[in-house]
Amino acid sequence: MQIDYKKFTLSNGLRFIVHEDHSTPMAVLNVLYDVGARDEDPGKTGFAHLFEHLMFGGSVNIKDFESPLLMAGGENNAFTTNDLTNYYIQLPAENIETACWLDSDRMLSLAFSEKSLDVQRKVVCEEFKEHYINRPYGDVAFKLRELAYKKHPYRWMTIGQELSHIENAKLADVKAFFSKHYCPANAILVMAGNIRTDKALALAEKWFGHIPAGKKYIRQLPVEPEQDAARVLEVKADVPLDALYKAFHVGSRTDKSYYAMDLIGELLGGGGSSRLFQTLVKEKKLFSNIECYHFGSSDPGLLLIEGKLIKGTPMLTADQAIREELDKLSSATISEKELMKVKNKTESAILFEDMSLMNRASNLAMYELMGDVAFMNTELDKYMNVTTGEIRDLSASIFDEKNSSSLFYYSNN
After folding, report:
1. pLDDT tens digit string along 84-101?
2. 217, 168, 182: which is closest to 80 by C-alpha?
3. Do residues 58 and 190 both lie within one domain?
4. Which residue range forms the structural domain that includes residue 405?
5. Is 120 buried (19+), middle (13-18) or exposed (0-12) by CB count in 10 A?
């Protein structure tokens, strides 16, 4: 399925992509900012996620963001990762200019006040407590990242490394973060749906073209050194079941090994027919559930395996069982039939995702962030070209024991 688009660059450096789809009465405005948790000061983490909340608090010229959008029949949301921050609005196509008005004003002049910061700071702090401090296994991601990363800022979560960093956020810090990252030179704008390209370009010029470009942010992040020894951390907590987590360093989203690595994740943990589930849950009955996944991060990231143990299963027995399955994938060539099965599943997932106008809009922005929006139409071929030999050889490299970080999470019960 080819996704048609037109790409432009406004005079202020804002990259602009239009995708026409006249089969729908709707339109989507998507604004992606090239800033995530990896771009934060180690002593002031959680700011990118805090901004996700602050951006809905109104701008200098528009005090109430939500009411005009609701009157135009629209809905909006956002998400933040370690790599990026993405905002999107969906509404009837005839009202797309309302979305342009709203999003351009908060790019130009977000409203900052002690009151709005205090409100959103409290919201984020409550989210931190609810999802990470007071929830069983809530600290797993923090501990596993800190175990796997020693230098790179992926060592902290998007929510922030410590609650105190958000509690102590100052208005001056917030303003400085905004001026550094939230500008046309550091953003990608997408309009998609029932709109003509010429009209979309005219609206982009009208509402975004006058915003000062700002300075393009150039990253100079510390490089994570190659791991040269297995790492293990043991934790005891008030949780219902023992759990086992293993992380392995892998290449970035733009690395040529990405497609084979993604298929390896599907082979190992892609649902009930995957190798880990079939062997360790159904046959050996060591785990109640087990998963394998990765984040597809912009810098070299992690492939993770996690599972809850059946009561009575020794942790080291479970760990050895995982190792045996990884060794099988690393030492023997898989069948063409098994590989084609996960390729077909991946193809279905890509095609299904592209059915949503909102997904198409955000994906166009993300592929442009990766280096070229055209990548969106070549992904499937790259998956299909992965060979069984590549799967075996890459598995041997990834699942080298020296490349592993294991968290043994014991229940006190």
Report:
1. 999 999 999 999 999 999
2. 182
3. yes
4. 231-411
5. buried
Query: Given the structure tokens 């043991």, which residue do they identify?
Result: 234
Structure tokens belonging to residue 308: 């809850």
Nearest one of 301, 253, 297 to 81, comparing CA atoms: 297
> Is residue 222 one of the residues assigned to a domain?
no
Assess contact for 183 and 211: CB atoms under 8 A: yes
Token pair belonging to 99: 């979305």
Statement to judge: residues 166 and 251 lie in one domain: no
Does residue 280 surpass a pLDDT of 80? yes
- For the record, the structure tokens of 272 come out as 């009930």
Residue 321's contacts (CB-CB under 8 Å, 6 or more residues apart) are: 279, 280, 284, 286
Residue 344 CB neighbours (<10 A): 12
Is the entire prediction scored with pTM above 0.85? yes
DSSP 232-282: EEEEEES-SS-EEEEEEE---TTSTTHHHHHHHHHHHHSSTTSHHIIIIII
Name the residue among 88, 51, 96, 48 with its Cα closest to residue 72.
96
| Spatial separation of the C-alpha atoms in residues 47 and 301, rounded to whole Å | 21
**pLDDT 10s digits, 129-184:** 999 999 999 999 999 999 999 999 999 999 999 999 999 998 888 889 888 999 99
Statement to judge: residues 23 and 169 lie in one domain: yes
**What is the Cα gyration radius of the chain?**
23
Total of domains in the chain: 2
Task: Give Cα 85 distance to the centre of its chain.
Answer: 9
Statement to judge: residues 236 and 341 lie in one domain? yes
- List the CATH number of the domain containing 37: 3.30.830.10
DSSP 112: -
Q: How confident is the model at residue 58 (pLDDT cuts 50, 70, 90)?
A: confident
